[in-house]
Amino acid sequence: MNSPGGRRQETTGPRGRRAHRPREQDRDVQLSKALSYALRHGALKLGLPMRADGFVPLGALLRLPQFHSFSAEDVQRVVDTNGKQRFALQPGEPGTGLLIRANQGHSLQVPELELMPLETPQAFPLRLVHGTFWQHWPSILLKGLSCRGRTHIHLAPGLPGDPGVVSGMRPNCEVAVFIDGPRALADGIPFFRSANGVILTPGNADGFLLPKYFKEALQLRPTRKSLSLAGNEEETECQSDPKHSPRGRMIQQ
């Protein structure tokens, strides 16, 4: 609206503050996060009828209070445009309508999730990588990787930005751990590939992928450099945090 003097007036809220219309991108992020929680972790708590393959009726999902402001078209857009391909939609039985699920990342048990077993060394990608942060690195170096409340440890077929890597590692990870998948497979640890290309493993009987399966480690930020996996190397100061060594231990001041 223009004022009599020709200047554009700002639209204000009920208390005189400038009103901001939520951007579609912000709504999509909000919807994606709500979908991730409901489909990966909260379906039973929310009363959603989840099938053994992880699919739930989209109509039942949209009837939940946290989804009242979203439509089926909003969900379709988020599924189609999600760069990590986190979700899948498919037609249901007559009268059921569309079904939706998360492709991986569950803490809920999903016994019939469509995962392709990797049964031979040749089935593995050339690189098998887990991304993490400095705060977790000392524990990982000592105990190995763990599921951390999920059903699987997540691995990517490369580093962020590599061709074909759409999911499996956060783009802001600080440390990359390269895994010897064939060696772990030979020791009886199963591996699977999800629908969006993430490599998953439940680890050993305790839910761990032990350090003996680590091939190498790489600092990713602020610059890339190799990290030692040895337990007795001289500690040097980490570039990304002056109080930490490349292995994440505290440096005495």
From TrEMBL:
Class of enzymatic activity (EC top level): transferase
Q: What InterPro entries does this protein's entry cite?
A: Ptrans_KptA/Tpt1, RNA_2'-PTrans_C, RNA_2'-PTrans_N
Q: Which UniProt keywords apply?
A: NAD, Transferase
Molecular function (GO) terms listed? tRNA 2'-phosphotransferase activity
- Catalyses which reaction(s): 2'-phospho-[ligated tRNA] + NAD(+) = mature tRNA + ADP-alpha-D-ribose 1'',2''-cyclic phosphate + nicotinamide
- Its domain of life reads Eukaryota
* Key word Transferase present: yes
The record's section on Pfam families has:
PTS_2-RNA
EC number from the UniProt entry: 2.7.1.160
Q: Where is this region: Disordered?
A: 1-30, 225-253
Gene Ontology BP term (one): tRNA splicing, via endonucleolytic cleavage and ligation
* Biological role: Catalyzes the last step of tRNA splicing, the transfer of the splice junction 2'-phosphate from ligated tRNA to NAD to produce ADP-ribose 1''-2'' cyclic phosphate.
What is the similarity comment for this entry? Answer: Belongs to the KptA/TPT1 family.
Would you tell me the protein name for this molecule? 2'-phosphotransferase
Record the organism: Odobenus rosmarus divergens (Pacific walrus)
Q: What is the lineage of its organism?
A: Eukaryota, Metazoa, Chordata, Craniata, Vertebrata
